[in-house]
Fold:
Amino acid sequence: MTDPSFVPLRFERRDSKEMLDAARAFRGELETRRSVRNFSKDPIPEGVIEECLRAAGSAPSGANLQPWSFVVVRDPGLKRRIREAAEAEERENYEWRMGEAWLKDLEALGTDENKPFLEDAPALIVLFRQAYGLDDEEKRKHYYVMESVGIAAGFLLAGLHQAGLATLTHTPSPMGFLEEILERPENERAYLLIPVGYPAEECEVPNITRKSYEDFVDER
Structure:
């Protein structure tokens, strides 16, 4: 996985206008991305998810150990099992785990313990973080796992949106049931559950606003 040799960097330097145009186009594209909870059951064209996963797999990682695994779930039976297990955890969350402030913050988004999108979406991508590596059954230390997997998740979400698909970042905590249902090895922990597909025709999303640039950037 790690090659000690070095090769020339492939890098094409753009002029200032090309750079600004590219940056603005990328921002404009990502600003249209929304979390979707109402999916069409229409199938996703073959190869699209694979290409997006290849892009996610190119993310930087601590010591280039790439501490992630992705599972693509299309089987209706598996999706149903995942939905049932997720809703069981979410019922506990909404009934007593979440505090009053958390529930109040969620009111504007209209969420509850019912998660039909886990069956409606044509595919679920489950991202697992590898707490440590397994080389011939021997444990190998991984570095900056959470940071590395988070970057890979960002690559994946951007790629899926760029390809024309809708997504949701779903975290039905605790998510240990995903490791059991999908029969993952002992070193993997569920990190993110991403329903993927097209929005349903009647799909609506909350009317939200984003922070202004000045609210989240400090230039010095």
User: Anything to note?
Assistant: The domain at 42-203 is CATH 3.40.109.10 (NADH Oxidase).
